[in-house]
Amino acid sequence: MARIAGVDLPENKRADIGLTAIYGIGRSNVVKIIKDAKVEASKRIKDLTEKEVNSLQKCVERFKVEGDLRQEVEQNIKRLEEIGSYRGLRHRKGLPVRGQRTRSNARTKRGKRKTVGTVRKEIATKIGGPTVGGGKPA
To answer: How far apart are the first and last CA of the chain?
Structure first.
C-alpha cells in the first residue's frame, strides 16, 4: 500500500489519478510530479516499486499539501473575517463569496429550502398577528 503525505493512495487507480487523492495535488501538479519522479503515469499504484514510491514522495514534499495547506486556507479566511472585508463577512454568514446570485440558486451554501407561508385572516384574528395583505386583522 502506497502512503504519501499521510494519505493512503487508492491501489487500483493509475498513478496519475491516484495522486490526486492528496489534498492540494490536482491534475496539473500530478503531471509535474510524475515527470520529475520519472514514473509511468499509466502504471497502477499497487504495481509501483518502493523506489518509485519514494521518488514520488520526494517530489510531493516540494508542494504544500494536506495539513499545512488546510491550515493556510483557514488562516486566510480568518484574516478576511478579522479585517471585516466583504469576503470575510460572506464567509461568516455562510453565503457565496465570489459574487454568485443567491436569489434562485446557492443551495449548497444556504442549505435546504424552507417554505415561508402566509397566515389566513381567520387565524390571524385569533392570534392577533398580521394578515396576508400586511394590514390589521379584521
So the answer is: 75
